[in-house]
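Give me C-alpha cells for this 448-residue protein.
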Amino acid sequence: MTLSETIRPQGTARPLDHVPGDLGLPIFGNTFAFLKDPFGFHQQRREQYGPIYKFGVFGGRTVALYGADALEYVLMDREKNFSSRKGWRLLERLFPDGLMLRDFDDHRGHRRIMQAAFKPKPMRDYMLHLNQGIARGIGAWAPSDRFEFYPAIKDLTLELGASVFLGLTMGPEAAKVNQAFVDEIAASVAVLRRPWPGSQMRRGVKARAFLLTYFRDLIPARRAGGEDDMFSQFCQARSEDGAYFNDDEIVDHLNFLLMAAHDTTTSVLTTMIWAMAQYPDWQDAVRGEVLAVGSEQLSYDDLDKLELTERVLKEALRFRPPVPFLPRFAERAFEFGGYEIPAQTSVSVSPGLVHMDPELWNQPTLFDPDRFSDNRAEDRRHRFAWTPFGGGAHKCIGMHFAIMQVRAFVHQFLQHYSVALPDDYQNRWQAIPIPKPRDGLPVILSRR
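Here you go.
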C-alpha cells in the first residue's frame, strides 16, 4: 500500500466540522508550524481549542486526543480499532514491515516469534557484548573542554548495535551504515513525500535498499550457526506453534529494530548526560552508587542495584521521551471526550505532552528524579502518566534491552569520566523525529 493510498485527499476526507481546530494551508496544512516547534504547536492549540482538536499535517487530517486517559484508550485499544501501520504512514516507504507497522493478529504473531530474542539467556549474552563494546568505545574518548557527546555516543551505540544485533565489528562500512540510518530518519519527516531525485525521501529509500541488501547477505551464515547475537536469534527463533521468520521478514525487522535501538538509546543517554552535567549533585550521587557496586563492568545480576541511576533514567525519559508523539488510524468510528470521531480518521496521542501535565507532575518543567522515589511516586498517579515506551500491544519489545544498555553505559562511564557544561551552553534541542541536541551537546569531559 502506498502513501497516497493511506492518506485521503483533504477534499474527500470524512467530515470533521464538529471537531474544533484548524487544518492550516491547502496541501501543507499546519506542517511547517508543527515542525518548527511541535510541543509549542500542540500547547497553543490545546489552550485555544481544548483537549480534542483537529489539525492538518503532511497532507492529511488528524485529530489530537490529549491526556493520560486518551493514551490509555488509544494504546490499550481493547476494541482493536486503531491501526499502528496506517498511523505511522510516514514510515511506510522506509520501514513497511517492521514490528511497529504491523497490526492486530499479524503483529501478535510476529511479536511472539521475536520475543525469543529477549528472554533471559539471550539477554545475558547481550550484556557481555555491551560491556565489552562500552569499555572499548569510551576508552578511546579523549578529555576535552568541548567534547561533543551526541556524535560520540551515536557512534558508540552503532558499534554496540553491530555487535549485539548483528554479531559484527563495524569496519570501514560503519560510516555508510550510520549514514543510511540518518537518511532513513530524515526522510520520515520530509515534507515532500515522494522519492524525487535529490529529495530527502529519495535518499531515505536508497538507504533502506542498501541496508536490506547488507542484512540479507548475512542471513545464510546466521541460519547455519549458533551465535549469540540478536540477528542469529531472529534467524533461528520459533514460536510455540513452530512459526518462524522468512528472509524478507528478518531484514525488515532488523532494519527497524536496529534503527530504533540505535537512535532512541542515543537520545536518552544524551539527555541523561546533559542532566548530570547540568545537575552535578545527581552526577555525584549516581557515581557513588556505581562505585558501591564494586565492579568495573555491570553484571546482569547487578542491574537492579542501581536505584538512583534508575530514577535519573526515568526522569530523562519523562523529560524528553525519544518518541513524544504516537499516531494511530481509526478503522471505525469511535466516541471520546464527548466527540464522535468518524471512521478512517488519523488520531494522535502524546506521551511527551502528558509527561508535562501539571495535573500529574509537580513542576513538570523541572528535571527532578526524586519524583520517582517511593514516597512521591508521581508516575503512579495514572496508569499512563509515564509511557516513554508506549503501551498496550505495541509497547516497545526492546524496553528491557534499552534499559540494560543505558545502565551498563552509565556504570562504566561515571567510573572513568566527569562531565560539566561550558559556561556559554544554551539548551537547544530538536524535538522530532527523535530528540537530539542541535549543537551536538558540547561538554567538558574530564578523566577521573
